[in-house]
Design a protein that fits this description.
Homodimer. With 342 residues, this protein is of the alpha/beta class. It has twelve helices and 15 strands. It starts with a strand and ends with a strand. The protein binds N-carbamoyl-L-aspartate and zinc ion (2 copies).
Length: 342
């Protein structure tokens, strides 16, 4: 039985760090263990200028105060970004995140139309400049079908811009896993929670608000397709936690905010999941190497040593007035982080 496992230079390619006291609370919970993360721009207001992006990066670096952690910033997609603006900002960002308007938390100013012709000027500039496009891929259809209905939109963008790197963010369906192999320029992230849960876990019994997120968790066959792809470290699939903290009172209320908070448990739970499925040998590819290759990131040596020992997940994480509940709050995971080494 394996009792020690090492993850080198873990990367979280889809992360919400928020701002203010929440950033100060959750930032270190990622930066202690991960070597880098792709930071989502859906602040209020969203990150749409170079000044806003650079000052957010500085606040992140202050909150994280950890040398061996690189926050990779993104911009919030807008149709009116000029080529010159994008050329000027290109070396400062890892990608641009596109949200259909109103589809998820803080996406009200996202794009109103997913028509390729409407998006063309900005996507053409991004393609020329080699800026990856990250997409929250959901229509505003029936909630269980939103991702599936978005597949033709991914296809039309992938076909129209063969040189543009497109990342389907937080995929939740078998259809999305299958689409990965159809276009060279399509990649994806998948979360921890979508590898673990289905809609039943969230809403099949008593409602579990802390498992409520967008896209909503789907059917067992979807979860199985995602899990199979992750366990074999499909080369176009990366770990992106989509850890999305909301204050406890905004989750445990009428009108629960969407988002699952997983940063502090992600590496332990992934190790447990990969071990239970005899796939530990692929975990470093899933949580580091694939992203490094897809995004051309420099290697950093930061080793997280995990041991097979109970880890009781805290019921809440608190800082000043902020309180946030992690996935598996109060439950026991069977891998613990023992040390972090160079
Ligand atoms: N995943 C979520 O349910 N919520 C995210 C936004 C997002 O990634 O769609 C958030 O910012 O809270
Ligand atoms: Zn999203
Ligand atoms: Zn997200």
């Amino acid at each position: 039985m394996q009792t020690i496992f090492e993850i080198d230079s873990a990367l979280d390619m889809h992360l919400h760090l928020r701002d203010g006291d929440m950033l100060k609370l959750v930032g270190p919970l990622t930066s202690e263990t991960f070597s880098g993360a792709l930071i989502m721009p859906n602040l209020v207001p969203p990150v749409t200028t170079k000044e806003a992006m650079l000052s957010y990066k500085q606040r992140i670096q202050e909150a994280c105060s950890e040398d061996k952690f690189t926050p990779h910033l993104t911009l919030f997609f807008q149709n009116n970004y000029s080529y010159e603006f994008l050329e000027d900002i290109k070396d400062e960002i890892i990608g641009i995140k596109l949200y259909p308007a109103g589809i998820t938390t803080n996406s009200e100013t996202g794009v109103a139309s997913m028509d390729v012709e409407v998006l063309r000027p900005t996507l053409e500039s991004m393609s020329k400049l080699g800026i990856p496009l990250c997409i929250h891929g959901e229509t505003n259809g029936f909630v269980m079908d939103r991702e599936k209905e978005f597949m033709p939109i991914y296809e039309s963008i992938a076909q129209a811009f063969p040189d543009l790197k497109i990342i389907m963010e937080h995929i939740t369906t078998k259809d999305a896993v299958e689409l990965l192999d159809k276009y060279d320029n399509l990649y994806a992230t998948v979360t921890l929670h979508h590898l673990l849960i289905t809609l039943d876990d969230m809403a099949g019994g008593m409602l579990k608000p802390h498992l409520f997120c967008k896209p909503i968790a789907k059917r067992p066959e979807d979860r199985d397709a995602l899990l199979n792809a992750a366990l074999k470290a499909h080369p176009k699939l990366m770990f992106g936690s989509d850890s999305a903290p909301h204050p406890k009172h905004k989750k445990e209320c009428c009108g629960c905010a969407a988002g699952v908070f997983t940063s502090p448990i992600a590496l332990q739970a992934l190790t447990q999941l990969f071990e239970e499925n005899d796939s530990l040998e692929n975990l470093n590819a899933f949580v580091s190497l694939n992203a490094r290759r897809i995004y051309n990131l420099n290697p950093v040596s930061k080793k997280v040593k995990l041991v097979k020992k109970d880890f009781i997940v805290p019921t809440t994480y608190n800082f000043k007035g902020e309180s946030v509940v992690p996935m598996y709050a109060g439950e026991v995971l069977n891998w613990t982080i023992q040390a972090i080494e160079d």
